Amino acid sequence: MISFCGIQLRHPIVNGSGTFDAIAARRAFGDALLRDFPFAAFVSKTVTLAPRQGNLPPRLWELAAGMINSIGLPNKGLDGYLAEDLPRLAELPVPLIVNVMGSTPEEVATLVAAFAGREEVAALELNVSCPNVKTGLLMGADPGETAALLDAVRPRTAKPLIVKLTPNCASPAAVAAAAEQHGADAVSLVNTLRGMAIDPRRPGQPWLGGGTGGVSGPAVRAIALAQVREVRERVRVPIVGMGGVQSGRHARDLLDAGADLVGVGTESFRDPRAGGRIAAELAEIDANSGIVAGPPKPARPRIAQSL
Ligand SMILES: Cc1cc2nc3c(=O)[nH]c(=O)nc-3n(C[C@H](O)[C@H](O)[C@H](O)COP(=O)(O)O)c2cc1C
């Protein structure tokens, strides 16, 4: 067992928000999913206050090493989530982390307050890749905006707050430091990197209905590694590292760069059991590494050393 913000987890592999639909997976795989759940905790897709339709299609573009999505966070809104999704997600055999997003700090605070008293919810993740409609600045792209967000949100819950950093800014590490100083219990990174694809039949026109989208998968792994390392150098709070993880080796690299947990996102689209496979591969790597945690053993028995 490992401890993350006081939550006990069986292993360090969780899902990336929005990349594993546990309710659809339960429908497809039945109770077998509960017996063999691929992740140590489940992070739900982003919930907003009002329902959202999401972006116009097309919503996906495949890359040589990943994809660009412009899903646009469709969801039932807070009331729909509380009535329909939360009871089902509470049946999962692992702790539940609810990911929320709002367009002002007050809106995020309202969302957080709605989950504060819910026993089913172990922690909250704040998706800060959203412009503050009042200032026009991306809440997670500017340390001052992030500090103001935390100041509004922190008093509304005693549950662990994880700030999901965006890589689309000058310094994710500076944003992480502001989040930590203003009461975040953990940070997660990377969210998707802004990218675009051109429609092959309409020169110069974007393929994705949303114009641009978020790049994920193996293409972003090296960036995630560098950003996790940079954030680790600035903060002491736990880090959930993610971005292009496809194997236990990739997870181990992120842990070695400073992450405490590892998120698996795009890989679950290729293989819904990827989380469990990656956790098993990681355990095997660790068991065979020859690296022993704790102080090094004395080279010889003490009695021999004292002779
Ligand atoms: C199709 C898709 C939907 C996503 N939806 C969300 C979301 O609702 N909220 C969020 O915070 N991140 C969302 N993400 C970002 C992922 O959680 C993750 O941070 C990112 O994809 C990097 O990890 P990966 O390369 O393993 O996919 C989404 C990513 C993808 C590919």
Description:
- This protein has 307 residues and is of the alpha/beta class.
- It has a single domain (2-55, 72-193, 219-289), classed as TIM Barrel (Alpha-Beta Barrel).
- It has eleven helices and 14 strands.
- It has an eight-stranded parallel beta sheet with strand order 3-14-13-10-9-8-7-4.
- Strand 8 (121-127), helix 5 and strand 9 form a beta-alpha-beta unit.
- The longest helix is centred in the last third of the chain and has 15 residues, at 274-288.
- The protein is globular and about 50 Å long.
- The model has no long low-confidence stretch (mean pLDDT 94).
- Bound molecules: flavin mononucleotide.
- Residues 16-19, 45-46, 69, 71, 73, 99, 127, 164, 190-192, 216-217, 220, 242-245, 264-267 line the site of flavin mononucleotide (FMN).
Category by helix and strand content: alpha/beta
If classified by CATH, what would the architecture be? Alpha-Beta Barrel
Number of strands: 14
**Biggest sheet, in brief?**
8 strands, parallel
Poorly predicted tracts of residues = none
CATH homologous superfamily heading: Aldolase class I
Mean pLDDT: 94
How do the strands line up in the largest sheet? 3-14-13-10-9-8-7-4
What's the gist of this structure?
With 307 residues, this protein is of the alpha/beta class. The protein has helices at residues 22-29, 32-35, 77-89, 105-116, 143-153, 172-181, 221-234, 248-256, 267-270, 274-288, 302-305; strands spanning 2-4, 7-9, 13-15, 42-43, 60-63, 66-69, 96-100, 121-127, 161-164, 186-189, 193-195, 213-216, 239-242, 261-264.
